[in-house]
Records
---
Amino acid sequence: MNRALFRRLGNYLFVGVCGVATLIALTALVMILWSLVSKGIGGIDLKIFTMTQPAPGSEGGLSNAIVGSLIMCGIGMAIALVVGILAGTWLAEYGGDTTYGQVVRFFNDVLLSAPSILVGLFVYEILVQPFHGFSALAGGVALAFLATPIVTRTTEDILNLQPHALREAGMALGASRAFVIRKIIWKAARAGLVTGGLLGFARISGETAPLLFTSLGNQFFSTNVTQPMATLPTTIFQFALSAYDDWQRLAWVGAMLIAIAVLSINIIGRIVAREARR
Amino acid sequence: MNDLPNHMTEDVYLAFPDRDNLAIEARKLDFFYGKTQALFGVDLPVERNRITALIGPSGCGKSTLLRALNRIYDLYPKQHAVGRILLDGHDVLADRKSLQRLRERDNAADDDTMMRSAVDVAGLRARVGMVFQKPTPFPMSIYDNVAFGVRLYERKSRADLDVLVERSLRRAALWDEVKDKLHTSGLGLSGGQQQRLCVARGIAVEPDVLLLDEPASALDPVSTAKLEETLIELKQDLTIVIVTHNLQQAARISNYTGFMYLGRMMEFSSTADLFATPRGQRTRDYVTGRFG
């Protein structure tokens, strides 16, 4: 066998293996989406959004869980955006090269991949046990712990991409460092900051484990953040494990809603990022 | 390296140019990037209302010298300058740390010429503007770009600001091209327009000195010509120091030229003299294009 043929065969083999691997990954994704949609679409109607979760066998929806998810993700993102953007800015602009900065970056990276159930247990220790009760606030804080490292990381990365000349130009006019960062650098990095926030939101919107120990879940409609509150993931968890057909159907609808929300957030993030690059 | 012939002898420096009419002046300036020394005892007199050009091969320290003059290097903790930079006779390197370094270098005791004074770096930068090699429009409208520096220092009425923005854009020879789209993004302009926008932004705060670091190197010939015209116009009101790789440009627009090599000021004189009768061999070789 000559060399050229041997190389060509090697090349085909490699491309083939890559193709098969891609196909496997894509197939799994499509199957997940397909089963979500096929089992969830039938159950979707107005009642899902207007009625709270039912007792087995009676009519109901997921409004308490949807609102709960929105509230807790809102709390989580409010904390994560403030802490994450400021921390990321500090890492990129001020202390990133110091020993302390390197330690912060290292622990942020560790947090980035921390098992979410540990985060739930930690928040249980600091916010649930001392106050003798599960609460939506604790759930929001647990979600913040998961979203903050993502926002911090993307903020630092995106600020590091901004040209030095832009900072120098601002400083050369006599502006302070902080002023240049707020008025010029953040503005130039706007799209990246938005993307970071959206990534964080996508991550926490489907989290279940950290909420089991913190917000617990609630079968009634509640907007009191000091009390237990339902969320889509915890309700899905509860319903999917149940023996009732109608509960299981609602679990599928909830799962589909989360998937749609995450998907649309990612698409919006990409569009925003592309628009801003122009 | 220390035995390189230095043609900027003390008497040349004293005689030329007019010492009473200096806008800014560097004296025995050393500059360090970390432990690497980039400038070695550089002297630079900059006469008021004139254009002073800095030429020399890449890495010779032209940009470093320029960046020392408005202390923009302060952004980077590892960079520092030792020596004196006099702006209207006031030492802008008179903060505690810089003075301590100067004392250590010169083995000088505390004396009254080394009185520490508070250095207002923001104020310094308001008086010494800077334009960079690549255009650096801010991500905001053309109007806001020009008004950016002004708004840092004073609260002006909308009408006053309108007048100032128009005047700055006119002086930067950009007004006619942008007057109908003042409130669109500055990022939408061409490279040459962006660079003139940066000039307009720099002069809007009415600085005494404008530093330009190879401002035309990213521009096409037409834009370059426009920029050069602008600079010649501007020197009626302010003092200009320009770093350039383009010898013709230095010859065309500058009144004085300094030739730098390996972190030293090798020769400094009127542009006509430096190009016609260079005193040093290296200067002669460089301006005739034999090396560089």
Note: The two ends of chain B are 18 Å apart (CA to CA).
---
Amino acid sequence: MEWTFTVRIVLAGSALLGLTGGVLGCFALLRRQSLLSDALAHAALPGVCLAFLITGSKSPEVLLAGAMVAGVLGAFAILAVIRNSRIKEDSAIGIILSVFFGAGIVLLTWIQKLPAGNQSGLDRFLFGQAATMGTDDIRLLSVVAVLVLCAVVLFFKEFKLVSFDQGFGVSLGLPVKLLEFGLTALLVLVVVIGLQMVGVVLMVATLVTPAAAARQWTDRLGLMLLLSGGIGAVSGSVGALASATLPRVPTGPAIVLVSSVILVFSLMLAPRRGMVWAMLQDRQVERRIRRENLLKDLYLAGERGTGFTSWVTLPILMGYRGLTGAGLLRSARRLVKNSHLERSGDQLRLTVEGIREAAKVVRKHRLWESYLSRRLELPPDHLHRDAEMMEHALSDEVVDDLDRRLGYPECDPHGKPIPREQS
Amino acid sequence: MNDTFVILLVGCMVASSCALVGTFLVLRKMALLGDAISHSVLPGIAIGFLLTQSRSSLVMVAGAGALGVLTVFLVERLQRTGRLYADASIGVVFPALFAVGVILISRYASMIDLDLDCVLYGEIAYTPWDLVVVAGKTVGPRAVWVTGLTLLLNLVVVGLFFKELKLVSFDPGLCEALGFRPVRLHYLLMALVSVTVVAAFESVGAILVVAMLVVPPSVAYLLVDRLILMLISAVAAGCIAVFAGYGLARMVDGSIAGGMAVAAGGLFILAFLFSPRYGLIATWIRGRRATGSSAGPNSVL
């Protein structure tokens, strides 16, 4: 790759657009306007064409103004259709998007047949051609970026309120309508700026994808804006470089692919929300349940006669739940380490601590059965399965309270004693 | 066959196919899923085209159909994780797939005769010249065969599953309780949308397919209540848009597909204002009669 002027321009432009798009995209995402921004991108096209037809100029400022007007008109048209007819939001967006875009295509084909239209370069708005950007495009982009970022910093609190709780905003006396309009206008501005770089179809991704990725990492709006802007800028730069390095890879799609990869990564790995994280947590819970079941099985075996600290062989334990020996030993290993269990060959037995832990589980099980039986008056054969789940879910505090409310019963509905801690 | 006749025939068959599946999309509030599918089938088309080097292959249709179903699957999986809003899931899935498609096409553009412009906004004007030759004899323009077969497929599927589709559109819960499989029907419909979109691609293009999928059924939705009537009026509205759009495009010497979208938009405005039951004016008059007040229609803003 050569570090040419064009490459630098494209890199700067993509990073700037990524940053601004990422920041504003957060509001679009949170206000459920992801697809509205898609419609705005499509709706801007006829505005670009009309501006060219009327003024004959193709300076970015003129085309931008035309696109702005058309974009805002499109947004109002969608609102008008939803408010004044039985057409639902999704259809309204689809209608405005496709009809405006169709009008844009008609105008574009018409312009291309005009004597002056051939070199109008308007078709770059369709797919975006970052490579055709010049210094004046960058200047405009910088102005817009500064404007958008300043607006977001200045009105952070207001925009936050509008995005999360409009009713509260109204009650505080904020001009909610005006703020909403302001946010939408900023959105249109960024969409329109972005069109010539990434094109109509991919514009929505420069807004929504970084925001969706940032959303995975945090619950705080301020941090989300920073992250999203950062992800957008990184995607823009990496995409621009990839497109400059690899032959015949257009910039817009490259940027979108980079941010999509970041999104997938975030969905998987973000702490707490990430799917890998959730899977690990599920596995931990599953293992704890298996350990608690093993303790309980040993306790019940002891209760049936041989005494709580007597040895029980693996084959007997395997028979209780149809588990494999290897699975049981996996659960047992951790319990032995915590000195809840002792192991000798293929025999296991509870330690004193183990008995206390097992008694807790059994107590939860039997108290829950008592509760179901007494308070909900369920028949005795409907109690066990529910209790099998609740014994792993109830906290100690809840069980103590349950015990108190039931009047410290001696036995569960099946006549089995409810163990209590001797203290 | 006369060129104009071929263009109008293809246009009407595309419009009818789209209106049939689009009606269910609009009723189920999934219009934008149709939009997403129409974009994300692009890599499927590109891959099918790269594999077989031909535009008429079944591989291409199959590839696009698979991508369409994949889109729906991905969007739903994302939604079900609870980590993204429904609209955002659509908004991140289709641009990603579309980007893959654009990169595939532009990287191998020299090897294949697949024009991005043509795929995206279609060129129905060329359809009369692309003929099918079977056993040395020309049997008519290829687009007529492709769109005709698609229309037939749509008619057969909608006809066969009419009751089920009706039920799943209006009451998915009851549908499941009665033992039909809403999920399977959903995927059947989405596969049908994908196939329809692919068939319509070359004639109206990826982006304007949406106009045919969403606008005529919305016009019908403003006019009638019964499903069967809605299907019929959607087909009719689509065909009217084709004729009017063709005239419009001829007048300004512009894109025919674009003209059809604009014409469909015009029909929508007419229905929006003048529909006897749900139009703006009718509702306004009814509201005035009911309240006896002189309040105007709901403010637009």
Note: The beta strands of chain A are 312-313, 341-344, 347-350.
